[in-house]
Amino acid sequence: MNEKIPVVMVTGYKGLLGSTLMRTAIGGHALVALTADIRDAGAVLSEIEECKPRWVIHAAAKTDVAQCERNPDEARAVNVKGTKNIVDAARRVSARVIYISTVSVFDGRKGNYAESDTPNPVNIYNITKRDGELATLKYEKGIILRLNIIGVHPDGSRGRNFLEWLVNSIHANKDVTLFNDQFVNPLSNWTISELIKMMIEKNVQEKILHIGSGDTLSKAKIGNLVLKQFPDYRGTVTEQSIESIADGVIRPKQMWLNCARAKRVLGKSLPTIASEVEAVFSAMPFNAVVS
Question: What structural domains and CATH numbers belong to the chain?
Fold first, then answer.
């Protein structure tokens, strides 16, 4: 009798990373989406116990920084309680958990953050993601994967992240403001999915892992890389400090990760941001980018 194919379960399967993961072939594994509301502990447990995954990739989260600040209880319900529900259910079936976290758990004062650096979150979103990390670390089979993502949803842009907002603005020839003092080393949704695939296939044992591109740029410079993809754009581009956002939310500036451990563990060099931007747009036709 053939053994049952091991399952990788993905939460947040409708989001940018989750939907990309569902399109990624992971050797020797079947991919299944968790459809339960992660805030519902009973529903999560029932679905995970029925599926009995070997791995759970927990990508579901409430990520809008301003919305989290306005609705902290909802942010905690999803990012903290939801994560605890996932971890508790995974523990019941001895599944390993990869918790998708963020560079934003750091305060952004120095950059080049290594796995050994102490998080110091500065707004509600960042605090709830750190609390989700702590819930994951209490489980011996939990892994924290910190990253910064850029990309366009495989089903078309929904305007929910920096790159999608910029592409939508470009297509509408709207003027755009880019921030020249927030520095990041993001990866595309496609590269992140491939690295997660490698983590599973290599059965990594690290408790915390940082992944990012091989260089660091300001959001403004990344925006200019995107603009080069659209030579017919007729809007005006302005560069400003991220402190010009007048919503009262503190946003860290030096948001880039030291990824030496990931390079060593995965045995893979990391791409440049320019190549990641090109990869995003080569993954789908431009006429499918804007919804």
Answer: 7-288 (3.40.50.720)
Distance between CA atoms of residues 54 and 108, nearest Å: 35
Q: Tell me which of 73-82, 163-172, 178-187, 263-272 is least confident.
A: 163-172
65 contact partners, CB below 8 Å, separation of at least 6? 123, 124, 125, 249, 251
Q: Which residue has the tokens 């500065």?
A: 122
- Cβ-contact 125, 69 below 8 angstroms: yes
Per-residue b or e along 172-187, where b marks 16 or more CB atoms closer than 10 Å to that residue's CB: eeeebbbbbebbbbbb
Query: 117-154 burial string, b = 16+ CB within 10 Å, else e?
Result: eebebbbbbbbbbbbbbebbeebebbbbbbbbbbbbbe
User: Per DSSP, which regions of the chain are E strands?
Assistant: 7-11, 30-33, 55-58, 96-102, 142-147, 149-150, 176-179, 183-184, 187-188, 208-210, 217-218, 237-240, 254-255
Interval 115-155: pLDDT, tens: 999 999 999 999 999 999 999 999 999 999 999 999 998 88
Asked if the model's pLDDT at residue 260 lies above 90, the reply is yes
**Per-residue pLDDT reduced to its tens digit, 15-48:** 999 999 999 999 889 999 999 999 999 999 999 9
Q: Which residues are CB-neighbours of 218 under 8 A, at least 6 positions away?
A: 179, 180, 181, 182, 183, 184
**C-alpha distance from residue 143 to each of 56, 104, 137, 146, 171 (Å):** 10, 17, 7, 10, 39
What single letter denotes the amino acid at residue 234? R
